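Protein Record: Sequence and Backbone Structure Tokens
======================================================
Tokens: labelled as protein backbone structure tokens, with as many entries as the chain has residues.
Question of interest: how does this chain fold, as expressed in backbone structure tokens?

___
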Amino acid sequence: MNTTRRSARFAASAAVAAFALLAAGCGSLTTSGQDAEGEANSVDEGFTVGLLLPESKTARYDKFDKPYFEEALSERCDKCELLYQNADQETAKQQSQAEAMLTDGVDVLVLDAVDSEAAASIVKNAKGQGVPVVAYDRLAEGGVDYYVSFDNEEVGRVQGRALLEALDSEEAGDDAEIVMINGSPTDPNAGDFKSGAHEVLDGQVDIAKEYDTPDWSPDRAQTQMEQAITAVGADDIAGVYSANDGMAAGIVAALKSAGVDDLPPITGQDAEIAGIQRVAAGEQYMTVYKAIRPEAEIAADMAVAAATGEEYDGGEHGLTQVEDASGEKVDAVLLEPVSVTEDKIEETVVSDGFYTVEDICTEDFADTDFCTEMAE
């Protein structure tokens, strides 16, 4: 399967990208399930799929999501062509990438939005040209055709429960003070994580400081943690809710810079290799493992169904319905997240082949309890 565009196509896309928006305003150019000539798309003949991922600060997208999706699409449609772009956390860049793909004649878009509200223009532009849109991991507004992700409020609940368990094991008490460092305010998933975490934590601990973190930036998270340390006092912070692993890295750095040797329990998400290594080393209490392969495979199923005009029934997972921020109802598959503490590393990310023991147990982590046990 061809995963790149010829340089001439890039040039042509850039030259006529504006036409895509103009054409979209003139009415539907194609019908969903058909190509530009009105012929039905088919797996036998192949068609073009556009995959738009949001950023590269989080390691998962280029390392896992894209190759897993590419593999799944190839298995389902070996004559299909995949066009791929990463927006590097820039809303305008993702907009331009989508316009270029539509100009190139993609038959379906799989979109993980940088900004879900802003992405409504991408969705409406695509649908105006008869191109269906599958929302991947984040629910873009504008009336997408399908959505696949995880139960994001449950992610927050999983993180919150894990933090309470850690605080309980350390006998922190009911008046324990914690800091909450949430994700990007432009990412609706971050709002769901935050809501789920509050559902568990409110009334159980004292949330001394709470921040939202633009762009999920580890650097901003580090600065926020430094502010919390100044306001609360390093010794009085019993735990930290971090919405993902990247920000947890900044939080750990801030605590160490403040002279904290015995780190409080810190949550995370995404099971990044650095996060798993911190869990193994006792620097991060837990991370949330979201099995990306089934998510990517379901997205491929949805894309093939949408491009060929077939109904997708959700397979073994079944379909549920969710509402985007504007009230549009969308057929969705929501997968279950898994908590990974030090004692769960082997049975989750290692057992699933997400990482090998060698990936985790590099020289700097060889002396951790986990790596020592794996070496025996």
Observations:
- The two ends are 43 Å apart (CA to CA).
- The chain has two domains: 7-150+291-335, 152-290+338-375.
